[in-house]
Specification:
Layout (H helix, E strand, L loop, with lengths): L1 E2 L5 E5 L4 E5 L2 E2 L9 E2 L2 H12 L4 E2 L5 H11 L6 H10 L14 H22 L16 H11 L4 H14 L2 H8 L5 H8 L1 H10 L5 H24 L2 H9 L1
Antiparallel strand pairs: 1-6, 2-3, 3-4, 3-5
Helix pairs in contact: 2-6, 3-5, 3-6, 4-7, 6-7, 6-10, 7-8
Subunit structure: Interacts with ATP5F1B; involved in the assembly of the F1 component of the mitochondrial ATP synthase (ATPase). Interacts with FMC1.
Subcellular location: Mitochondrion inner membrane
Function: Plays a role in the assembly of the F1 component of the mitochondrial ATP synthase (ATPase).
Length: 245
Amino acid sequence: ERKRFYQNVSISQGEGGFEINLDHRKLKTPQGKLFTVPSEALAIAVATEWDSQKDTIKFYTMHLTTLCNTALDNPTQRNKMQLIRAAVKFLETDTVCYRVEEPAALAELQRNEWDPVIAWAEKRYDVAIGSSTSILGPNIPASTKETFVSHLASYNMWALQGIEYVITQLKSLILSMGLIDRHITVEKAVLLSRLEEEYQIQRWGSVEWAHDYDLCELRARTAAGTLFVHLCSESSTVKHKLLQD
């Protein structure tokens, strides 16, 4: 945390996109690059994060700012295909594909809650996914992986950074695509990603406050990542043109 050093937050349009101004200073990334985002809506969302900070700046609450910094600085120096391959690799260990046989109540809960999401994904992308109780997980066909590679290739680099972020939170490509495609809500996606944990909590109880904090944090990060993907995927230029027409 650091003491808030600015009074006003504003946005302005520059050559490379939309910039964030803290008083009269332009925001920079950790690597010293000018903080420039591709859409006005995203700039407003980031500016709101900065404006909502009180006496101290809590960087760990500023998920959209962090995602923008990652997209601008690309600290891991990965190209588009490397990002896509990393995202698709999560299919091999996807949360909703790994099932238990015992206890029977949890196995039934997994079938009831996860099977419909897998069925939706198989129909939506015309692929075979399946599930397995083996420790090795399901055998995902190569054609399924290639279909997801092709689908993710339709997103730009900024959106892909957000998609990978959401996948990392949920430990699931399938839940992430359901969320980004607006098939399920953030609350539902988070609940499904924590199904076994929620089952254990209902059975044994939770550690006071710790469970609620973890749940809220995961929802906040997942919601921010999803919003980031949507704001980076939609063209404000097209929207302005449609409004003028």
